[in-house]
């Protein structure tokens, strides 16, 4: 059931469950709802899996192996489980998932307001008219509004600027060097994409950690799955709830998968700086923390290797031993200013993440920073849930890997509410 709406309709429609968001999280809970015979609608303001279609660059690929694509009722069935699906393959996987169970999608419908009703349930005002739902699952994820610093306003119009979500390929950028700001997964992979295309890249290095790709003969994802790390709930994690604020480790699935070592890029000619600080006149200023940020990324890299070593030793597993890691490059000095005109920088890519946008949600479920308050997706407001948030329960919560497990957990709570109403 794939319905499209071109305009508002009259009358209030009543549904047991409303799901807001048609990405992998919304589709996962819809699968469970259909399996349990619970009527619902999935509201998607654009098209199902839209972020994968419209907000990824051309060479984008997964950083986790294909076997971790295990949406409910639809595990990866291809011939390359250890590979990394490209953007178009990811979209095809999600399109096939939709076709496999025909969810009640309302595409092109924007939920403009959601609020609890005094008598119970919720009111949804949408671009296709008003709805009332007994329960609501918010599956819009945690990344809605691209972050671009106000300092960007001080760059002249002659320097093209775009957020990482709008980057597609090196050819879309004007001639000249490129400044990439941010070294999370997107920033590092975009910097590599430009570097491999022969562009001169200047990279403002942040505090993101990095990860090995293969260690002691196996993909690191396999080791961490087997050792149980990916099954650790955030409540049991040594960092507790602060783990939800961690930046993802950078690495890539490109060309069969490899780790990203920014020091190696520097040896090959990429220019590295500390964190972006400001724009003053014709200069971009950086914090004097490049060495520290590189060292901390390496500390995370080595900690992962050490944890695998401990697991191998504890289980008595025979695995090849690798030589100690030796940095291939060290910054000779902290460069804190760059004249973008002299450097010939023609474009800047801001890759410093997103912030959430819940202005449309009028419910007392947020903390002082505007983040959802929940336990495994269940909020203090009866019948209101979140799904697909980073570290909602485990490392894989916001990913193909474990969003289905989180959906199953919410399904139990939804069914309980349905049973209470029936009683």
TrEMBL record:
<dbReference type="InterPro" id="IPR024000">
    <property type="entry name" value="CHP04046_FMN-dependent"/>
</dbReference>
<protein>
    <submittedName>
        <fullName>Putative flavoprotein involved in K+ transport</fullName>
    </submittedName>
</protein>
<dbReference type="GO" id="GO:0050660">
    <property type="term" value="F:flavin adenine dinucleotide binding"/>
</dbReference>
<dbReference type="InterPro" id="IPR050982">
    <property type="entry name" value="Auxin_biosynth/cation_transpt"/>
</dbReference>
<keyword id="KW-0560">Oxidoreductase</keyword>
<dbReference type="InterPro" id="IPR036188">
    <property type="entry name" value="FAD/NAD-bd_sf"/>
</dbReference>
<dbReference type="Pfam" id="PF13738">
    <property type="entry name" value="Pyr_redox_3"/>
</dbReference>
<dbReference type="GO" id="GO:0004497">
    <property type="term" value="F:monooxygenase activity"/>
</dbReference>
